[in-house]
Amino acid sequence: MSSSNENVKLIATASAAAAAGAAIAYGLMKQASTGKPTGGLVRRNSFDRRSGSIYEDPDLNPHKSSSNLLFPHNHEEKMRRRIAARVAVEEDNMTPRDSVTVKVPASSANMGPGYDTIGIAVDLWSDITVTRAEKFEITAEGLGADEMPKDETNYMVTGVVAAFEAANKPVPILKYHVVSRIPYARGLGSSSAAIVAGIIAGLVLAGHRLPCWGSEALLQIAAGIEGHPDNVAPVIYGGIQIGIHNGTRWVTERAPTPPGLQLVTFIPDFIGKTSDARNVLEPMVSRQDAAHNIGRVAFLVLALCQGNLDNLSSGAEDRMHQPQRAKHLYPYLYPMIEAAESAGACCAYLSGAGPTVMALTSGASGDIFTQREKERTDSAVARAMIQVAEANGIKGKLLVTQAAYEGARVTKVIPPFSSDNITYRDNI
């Protein structure tokens, strides 16, 4: 009988403990959904700080949204809440300006199988100055100065107009001056550089700023004009960018740039028109070729993330656009790719829509002119590419440079942003 009583007591105790546990769990769940303590069961900020989430009490900050649970990867939501809680805005930096100079990098798009998706900013810069004036004018000096349009069809003007439309302001009369160091229409993103520089210049002149976190408004405007993000994204943000359209907007993320990476670039003397390069592409892609490119893109991105340069050659293989363009437009492409890789390049591919061929090499450390040449492969690769060009009767020049780790930026503005109390980079 005593044993039976003990069993009854144990069952009662267990039932009471279970009921208490359920009540506590209910209180926790209710607090997480409403943000309010329930029945004194939950103490404010009682969440374990070591957990993978961040709890924010709306009673402490009324600007917070109804969703109180933030995770470490919610960068855009954190930025949105930070902006919503901000009271002061620097109105002085939002006033119209009279003149602005924008420094903008070249870019190499497609990166083998990354058609219209993956691009890299190239350490090759143009300077574009836009100034309020009494007469419209475009002047240029440097590479491609005689070839670029000098009227409203110039992509600089297109970018400026888009910026003033975003600001909901009329476009004033402006004059443009370009110091071009990016070869014109050679597959190094000269049009994207013009678009982005025009948008940035227009925004500064208009005294208008765009949201970035959660919308990337500048990217939306630029990619909307260009039609794809693989050039404009690296021009805006620098580095290697992977851009897609998620069904709502353009988005881009940076992939790691392996240290010591150099860009060995053969730039032919003739112009390559993007429209011609797209016209030779097949309207349909076979399942086999699609699977090939999917695998190669994955391999390429993984190689970049791991810094495994030995895998870049396989990752840069393509069946979607390079074979067709080599057949109809650039017969020297595959011989040059093979020669570059045989000479030690990690990989080589057609830059953008061509005609430029880009080879990636490794081994650079600091200033290359203070480093022993045999530690690097860029010189051997350059000589191999030149030999192929000569054998095919292609005139051009060989440029050795590197990736640009930052994107376009303002270098001069009148009146300046800097003040007696705050000095910005380059004293702009």
How would you describe the overall organization of this protein?
The chain is an alpha+beta fold. The chain is 35% helix and 19% strand. Strands 3, 4, 5, 6, 7, 8 and 13 form a 7-stranded mixed beta sheet that branches. Strands 10-11-9-12 form a 4-stranded antiparallel beta sheet. The protein has a two-stranded antiparallel sheet with strand order 1-2. α3 links the parallel β5 and β6. α3 runs parallel beside α4, α4 crosses α5 and α11 packs antiparallel against α12. It is globular. About 10% of the residues have low confidence.
List keywords for this structure.
alpha+beta; 35% helix; four-stranded antiparallel beta sheet; globular; seven-stranded mixed beta sheet; 428 residues; 13 strands
